[in-house]
Amino acid sequence: MSDIIAPPSVRARALEKGIDLEKLAKDLGRTSIALEDLEGGKPAAAPAGDTSYWDVDHSQYGPVTEEWMSRFAQVAAANLGAANALIPQVTHHDRADVTAIEKLRKDLKPEAQARGVKLTALAFQAKALARALREFPRFNASLSADGKTLTLKNYVHIGIAVDTAHGLMVPVLRDVDRKGLWQIATEIADLAGRAQNRKVGPDEMGGASMTITNLGGIGGIGFTPIVNPPELAILGITRSETVTVWDGDTPRPVPMVPLDLSYDHRVINGADAARFVTYLAGLIADPRRIMV
Predict the structure, then answer these.
(1) Which of 65, 110, 211, 260 is the most exposed place for a label (fewest CB within 10 A)?
(2) Topology of domain 72-290, per CATH?
């Protein structure tokens, strides 16, 4: 029966079990055979981590093309898959008033041009995050692989996720709590530029306290970033939007930036995450507090 529809994983399992697919298809009265059909109608449970049942011949349904995943992309995919499978993560959503930051950026634009530096909102956000990590040390920590030891870090390094043609890269900005805005902005631009050209070294890619993944230049109103182990949390940022805030009976338009904090619930509980993001939003709303 040459028109039997069965993916390679099903054909391999049928061969192992000595099942004649042509006879089975005839008995079932159809040509499409799935794994559960080999188990006498019972759902076939794949062992944990077994993805063989994903191996489908998509060309049987229509025209397809194949694209090889680079080694870099394969490693990243494996890490993300493991993180999502093993870490019980929760995402806390909030937003912060960026009125003061935008005014300050506008006021500093002439100086930024004179310095040859692009003073982005991300520089302020990274500085605010560094201050928050000092205030909440359990967020600036890592859990051992066996889940028995928590290592608290006496440094603040921020990973900056960069979207590149060859995949997502996360170079790390060191000692952000000790640096001023101009230096932070300069180093962010340098790291992002070199990441695009694959000129970031392995020693510049590890040891972050927390990562910022910023989709503000693309769009969206929020998302759920995946924690990047051995970090315990990751901050997602999307495009600022104008929100109506009521001052008594008076509506007031306020530019707000969405903040999405995903965290490892084995170490961080929801109340602490809410306090952390509330504190962070307060720093972003009043940038004078991060420049002291």
Answers:
(1) 65
(2) Chloramphenicol Acetyltransferase (3.30.559)
